[in-house]
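Illustration 12: 3'-5' exonuclease domain-containing protein.
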Amino acid sequence: GRGLSVQRLTQIAQSWGVHGDPWVFQRLRRLLEEEEAEEAEEEAGSEAGIEATNDGEALESPAHARQEVLSITNERLVLVDGPEGEALMASEVDAVFSLLRKGRNLQVAVDAEWRDPRLLSLLQIAVSVPGAPPVVFLVDMLAPVSSAVSGCCRRLLLRPEGAQDHQVFAFGSREDKRRLLASGLLKVPATDDEASAQPSAPSGGSALQRAPEELRWVDLQQDGWGLGPRPSLGALVSGALGMRMDKRLQTSDWDRRPLTQAQLEYAALDASVLLRLCRHRLAPGCGEG
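Figure caption equivalent — predicted structure in C-alpha cell form:
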C-alpha cells in the first residue's frame, strides 16, 4: 500500500505541534502535488493504454509496456554551469534570433526541476527552429546566474506581445511560473514611470527592475487532448506519440553536483518532448514550427 495519505500526514504534523515549521509544510505540499499528479495520470491511463488496479496503483497494459521508451534522439544538450556553457548559450541564442529575423519560426519549451525548500535547482529550455536540430539548455540554478545567461533566458522565455513566430510551451506551468518569477531570473527593466516613482538605486547598484506583466506561454496540459481535464505528461506522450516516459528520476536529488548523465537526459526530455508534441501537430496553437 501507499501508507498514510498526505492529508493524514498533515493532521499528524499539526497534532505534533510542527504546524509552524515551513519546511515541513513545503515538503507536504510537494507530496500532495505529486499525489495529485499520480491521480491525474491514473484517471487518464485507460485512454493511454494504462490500467489501474483496485488499490489505485498504475499498472501498464501489455500494449503500453511494449511502447518504446522515450529517449534523447537528435537533441543537443548544453549544460550551462560555468563560463564555457555560458558562452555557448549566448552564441546559440544569437544564432537562433538571427534566423528568427530572417523569417524562421522559433519554438521554445520550458521546464524546471527543484527540491524544496530551494526555489529552482535546474532550468531546462528547449529551442527549435526549422532546419536545425533542437538544442536544450540545462541552466544550473544552484550557483548565481550571470547577467548574460539571465539575458538569454529572458530573450527565449518572454515572448513579445503579438509575436506569431515566437512561441513558448510549458506543461502544467503554474508552479514553474511561480518559481521562475520568484527567482527574479525573468525580471525586466522598470518603465520610466515606475522608475521615477521609486527612490534611485544606490550608487553602483543595479537599475530598477520588475517582474514581467505576463508570461505568454501555451500550457499544453490545457490544450484538450481528449485525456481528461489534466492529463499527465506520461499519459499524453503515450497517447499522442506512442512512447513511454521513464519517470523514475522525477524525485531524484536535483541538488547533487555534478548531476548524473541520466538526470541531465531526463531533465532535457521533460522540455524537449513538448517540442515533439508540437511537431506531432495535435496540440492547438502549436503552429507550423
